[in-house]
Amino acid sequence: FPLQTITGNFASVIHGLNANHLTDQVIQRSKRMILDTLGVGLLGTSTEVCHKVTQYSKIYSSDTSSTIWGHLDFQLPPLYAAFVNGVAVHSMDFDDTWHPATHPSGAILPAVIALSEAFPQKKKISGLDLLLAFNVGIEVQGRLLCFSSEARNIPKRY
């Protein structure tokens, strides 16, 4: 058998995953990670850097229904909502982390929420589907770290 490519590895793991693959422990841990990330993100909306990216991103305002956390006055396309909300989470630097050093939820949750809000009303995803998407994102990020030579020994390099 030929060696599997990185992309092939990702695809084989992700293909066919569904909410039934989430164990009770994964669901509970994911909920805690999401709650923590939302709390840090809401606190982060008060930072100067978040104010700057929010003001900048207003030029992309649209009718697309992706929420900017802490702002009820406008919405952005999913890409920009995820960016602004991700900056809010990372601006506090209290979001979750793992080794090698990365902040998984701050990169994943804003994107998953922004995309889920953009679905048409008749195709809205369930909370369990959101948890699955969140966990797939965490898994992909972890696998990227495992495949990255740059991620090795980060604490020793800094």
Describe the protein.
With 158 residues, the chain is mainly alpha-helical. It is globular. The model has no long low-confidence stretch (mean pLDDT 85). Strands 1-2 form a two-stranded antiparallel ribbon. It has a single domain, classed as 2-methylcitrate dehydratase PrpD. This is IRG1 decarboxylase.
Q: How many structural domains?
A: 1
SSE topology string:
HHHEEHHHH
- CATH-assigned homologous superfamily: 2-methylcitrate dehydratase PrpD
What is the number of E strands?
2
The profile of the biggest β sheet is: 2 strands, antiparallel
User: How helix-rich are the residues, as a percent range?
Assistant: 55-70%
Second-tier CATH architecture: Orthogonal Bundle
CATH topology: 2-methylcitrate dehydratase PrpD
From the spread of the alpha carbons, the general shape counts as globular
Under the CATH scheme, which class? Mainly Alpha
Q: Beta-strand level of the residues, as a percent range?
A: 5-15%
Write down the overall mean pLDDT. Answer: 85
The number of helices is 7
**Structural class designation:** mainly alpha
* Residue windows where pLDDT falls under 50 for at least 5 positions: none
Alpha carbon gyration radius:
17 Å
Q: What's the arrangement of strands in the largest beta sheet?
A: 1-2
End-to-end C-alpha gap: 39 Å
